[in-house]
Specification:
- The chain is an alpha/beta fold.
- It folds into 2 domains: 271 residues, Ribonuclease Z/Hydroxyacylglutathione hydrolase-like (Metallo-beta-lactamase, Chain A, 4-Layer Sandwich); 179 residues, Rossmann fold, CATH 3.40.50.10890.
- Helices cover 31% and strands 22% of the residues.
- The strands form 4 sheets. Strands 6-5-4-3-2-1-22 form a 7-stranded mixed β-sheet. A 7-stranded mixed β-sheet has the order 7-8-9-10-11-20-21, covered by helices on one side.
- Helix 4 runs antiparallel to helix 5.
């Protein structure tokens, strides 16, 4: 079919996360090759957003972790890697594969997450978090870095990672039968980037996928143009300077923070905004930015050229990085106007909560959301117009302006998704639409069917499908 031979190699894909929801990505691939069965996980992430997510994170895996041969991590956001240490704790002994930046970021993210998980466990009366530092150490000892376009084998499956352009080191996963060059190709998109990005290369083109598991985070909407996003940020910085207010930007530690710093660097160095105090109040973001500086060879060519010319893209006059808690507390003593960039991106934890509690009641202040806000998260509640917010157990009146910039999303929008899928229109037999809220996933699946004539389905949690490679 379509120039490729039909074979007896059967592949079963089971959806144990990221199914009609944006978090918890976890896909089990079981392949029967030459009488043997290989079991491969693509991602093993935390469920995030709703209170029920914490319960789901504590549940036993719906498969035996000790029977899994390997895990391939697409990138280091916690909704893609956050349960890997639990998998190890529960008996997994195989290899974990990703790009080198993902491995470095993962160690930072997983160690940082223990504090949040400990608080959740205490709040829910569980006592212990789902994993601890020793589990993370053991996890990292099993982790092996691979380069983009470097093939490796898991149980008769040949795997290749390709640049997804989502965050530094993010990857799409190509799977085919090793030693059979005309076998069909299964692709997991991971999270696809919002090209063009000033720091990252564009998402690689894949034009020969036969089966595709595609994300759909923004499968039903368009982003504003990046230039409009830049202008919007500039206007908001000017406004808080004029009104003597505070601009709060909750941002994910990976990519969104670096993208915001890059843009503010441009505004400051070119004198486009008034001088204001700017704080990066996130230890994880500060450490992650250090990892970014290690991988210059993976930058967009223009960004790489700027660095080689001596421009530190993530540092500029007026920026103060507050690594220690005492430094963070002193931000409250700094006179307005000021800008605070802090985690977490969905306002579910981290230092941003202290700033929200302090500054949301101020009419001259602005909360700027630049990332996807999962259903049930505090960020989503504020985005949808909540006038009272519960923060660290206290009711807080919301008088600050709540603004949103879509152009800084690290996920592509519906047009980007359709263009990516259309590259393989001549070979695609089936698309599994995942990693999106139901309305986004169902909308995208319908568009794929209507506009491309390709079979597209939206799997439910626990649903399995058999394909032939």
């Amino acid at each position: 079919m379509k120039g490729k031979k039909e074979r007896d190699n059967k592949i079963k894909i089971s959806f144990f996360g990221g199914a009609q929801e944006v978090t918890g990505s976890n896909y089990l691939v079981e392949a029967k090759i030459g009488g043997k069965t290989a079991r491969l996980l693509v991602d093993c992430g935390l469920f995030q957003g709703l209170r029920v997510s914490e319960e789901k994170n504590n549940d036993n895996f719906p498969y035996d972790p000790s029977s899994v041969d390997a895990v391939v991590a697409t990138h280091a956001h916690l909704d893609h890697i956050g349960r890997i240490p639990k998998l190890v704790k529960d008996g997994f002994k195989g290899k974990i594969y990703s790009t080198a930046p993902t491995k470095d970021f993962a160690e930072l993210m997983l160690i940082d997450s223990i504090g949040v998980l400990s608080k959740e466990a205490k709040h829910n009366g569980k006592g212990e978090p789902i994993y601890g530092e020793k589990d993370v150490e053991k996890t990292m000892s099993l982790w092996e870095a691979k380069n983009y376009r470097e093939s490796f084998e898991v149980g008769g499956l040949e795997i290749v990672l390709r640049d997804a352009g989502h965050i530094l080191g993010s990857a799409m996963v190509e799977i085919r039968i090793k030693g059979e060059p005309d076998s069909k190709k299964l692709v997991f998109s991971g999270d696809l980037g919002n090209a063009p990005e000033p720091l990252l290369n564009d998402t690689e083109i894949i034009s020969d996928a036969d089966f595709l598991v595609a994300e759909s985070t923004y499968g039903d909407r368009l982003h504003e143009d990046a230039s409009q996003a830049d202008l919007k940020l500039e206007r908001m910085m000017e406004k808080i300077a004029k009104d003597n207010g505070v601009l709060m930007i909750p941002a994910f530690s990976l990519e969104r923070t670096q993208r915001i710093l890059y843009q503010i660097n441009d505004l400051v160095e070119n004198g486009k905004i008034p001088k204001v105090a700017i704080f990066l109040d996130s230890p994880l973001s500060i450490k992650a930015t250090g990892v970014y500086k290690k991988y210059l060879d993976l930058y967009d060519p223009n960004a790489r050229k700027m660095v080689l010319a001596g421009d530190d893209l993530f540092d500029f006059p007026g920026l103060k990085m507050t690594l220690e808690t005492e430094e963070s507390k002193k931000i409250f003593d700094v006179p307005t106007p000021k800008i605070i960039i802090a985690g977490s991106g969905m306002c579910n934890g981290g230092r941003i909560l202290h700033h929200l509690k302090h500054y949301l009641p101020g009419k001259n202040n602005i909360l700027l959301l630049v990332s996807y806000q999962a259903a049930g998260s505090l960020g989503r509640q504020l985005e949808e117009g909540a006038k009272i917010a519960t923060i660290m157990g206290e009711k807080v009146v919301v008088e600050a302006d709540i603004e949103w910039i879509g152009g800084y999303s690290s996920h592509t929008d519906i047009n980007g998704l359709l263009n990516f899928i259309n590259n393989s229109a001549d070979t695609l037999e089936k698309v599994f639409v995942s990693h999106g809220e139901p309305k986004s996933s169902l909308f995208l699946a319908q568009r794929i069917k209507d506009y491309m004539g390709i079979n597209a389905v939206v799997p439910e949690y626990g649903e399995s499908f058999e394909i032939g490679l």
